[in-house]
Amino acid sequence: MGIAVLYGSSRRGGNSDLLADRLVEGKEAARYYLSGSRIEPIIDYRHTEPGAYPEDDYRSILDGVLGADTLVIATPIYWYGISAPLKLFIDRWSQSLREDRQGFLEAIRGKRAYLIAVGDDEPGRKGLPIVEQFRHIFDFVGVELAGYALAEGNKPGDVLADAQSLAVIDGWRLTL
């Protein structure tokens, strides 16, 4: 068991990565850089004959997520939403529900998650729909949203000047 970190940024070492790294600093954590992984879009078989799902990195990342007690999800805010790599990964949860609904729900239920989203256009206000999105997702699958940080940053390293978000992240570190 332990911590699984999902990095949604298209740029390693960006602001959302910096905050996620700060949170898990000194902790053993499995790190998944979604933009460096091959995750295909979901194929929706709800109303058609089921076919094969893509053979990509989704299952191996999901296994790591399901094996963890705590999830850290870090994403830049792109056009007031989560990054495309993170969205692809979450969308594929529909595949896991279709393949083995009870097994997937049993494996993910009871985990706690921390959400980090970073943007430069009033993220404390305009990032709230992302928090709501994850509240609904987590309510559906039985994951506790233990905390969220909507941090401000644009250029690499800017987020390190967001004292309020750093205080939130540092407070979480005490509970991990």
Automatic annotation (TrEMBL):
Protein name: Flavodoxin family protein
Organism: Paenibacillus xanthanilyticus
Superkingdom to which the source organism belongs: Bacteria
Domain NADPH-dependent FMN reductase-like, chain residue ranges per copy: 1-142
Keyword entries, A-Z: Flavoprotein, FMN
Keyword Flavoprotein: yes
Family matches, as Pfam families: FMN_red
